[in-house]
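U., I forgot to send this yesterday:
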Amino acid sequence: MAMDERVPGSDHYDRAYLSNGRPYSLAVQWDAVMEVAPASVLEIGVGTGISAFALRRAGITVTTLDVQAALSPDIVGDVRRIPLSDGAVDVTCCCQVLEHLPHVDFPAAVQEIRRVTRRRLVLSLPDITRTMGVDLRVSARGLWGFEWSLPVREPSPDWRAERLRTMGHYWEIGVDGIRARGIRSVLLRHGFASVRSLRVRELPWHRFFIADIA
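Result:
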């Protein structure tokens, strides 16, 4: 498959990219990976390289895949056709990646990720729906939180065109009827046995789906 020119390259991952709470999103990703104590991880989308570096320092074998050769992934390839064997890795991380593909390709990407993954998928996607919540701190139990997502007015065609031009986002949760429950349904339909979802408190635009295989 030819590479889409809108897919972010190395110049996208600058100092500004790591601002506005993004390190908190990385922490959520790492926690979700480490919960299952994997021996191997496939990271789809190299990004800044920080995630793979941290996981490797923890003794995990990490294979990176990206369509952008300039980011120096271990494998230059497309998530819709991953050149790995069935069940090749314990965990696959695919964070802030699939919105760079047309939404019609989302199920095919999920199916391919499921094929190469033995235990867990850690997926994050942009979510423009509004969020509100309450945090409660109990001395013996730590921090408890409750949150709700609220719909937003459908963005204008101009907003969508600008999003695609500047960020390479074909779609986001909250646009064109795409909802978190629909993402969860696709994951379940393609072989994941359980799916839990959460938003990063410090960066609620990032919604995670942690999908486990029975």
